[in-house]
# Entry
Amino acid sequence: MQAIEHQAPAVRMQRTRGTARLAIRHLDGRTRLGRLYQEGAAKIRLPQTHNGPALDAVLINTSGGLTDGDRFNWSIDIGQDARAIITTQACEKIYRALDGSARIDTRITVGSGAALSWLPQETILFDRSALTRRLEIDLAPDAGLLLIEPVIFGRQAMGESVRQAHFADRWRIRRDGRLLHAEDLRLSGDMGTLLAKNSVTGSAIAMATLLFVHKAAGDLVEPLRALLPATQCGVSAIRSSVGERLVIRAVAPGGLALRKALVPAIDHCNRILTGTGLPKIWNI
# Structure
């Protein structure tokens, strides 16, 4: 009699879900919490900083990191005349993926006369990780925005290297319904070969883009160049019928070097926009 082979059922891996929505309003001369909803591993905390007129919010992923199949959705609404600084509790770690990609979707609206500094800490990609990220921001005609997204391919201090990975990052920033700024970055496959290209990072493992949307953005090119290391950063101002913006591109041999290079510029722009110093977790 032929033996019957029994195959164990495929194990369905547990995956993380997180959804959070935050509304910030300007009431009675102060910026205050308007609404907060959080579900799953997505949490938001509002520390009492007494650091100026802006409200601080900290985004938290309680799962400790992301892998394939994990899904996060953040929704932020900054009301008229409100001021806010939003950051993350820690670096977002993207771990090895078995099948598919982790996904983070963020939708932000900034109302008339309002200002937002979007300052998440670094995203760290590990070997064989996969991340798809989408950022949609809608600005009122006179709203201001400071945006930074730093990315690190492996932790230099831990001796890590990223040989294979997938990273897709899409930004769409609109002002009064019209497209102001768009980014589409896709790095997939052999990271060593890709990062070695001068058109990518020239073998640097840390990179960041800073975007500053403000009426005075065009006047800040030279002051910011004076604050940044010329060999690691480039600064440009862009004017269009939709508005004025300043863009900084930065690369560095590691995460600490990247942060040291960028913090003076981030702090300078943030004080202009919100009248507030950087959150303590951004201090070096």
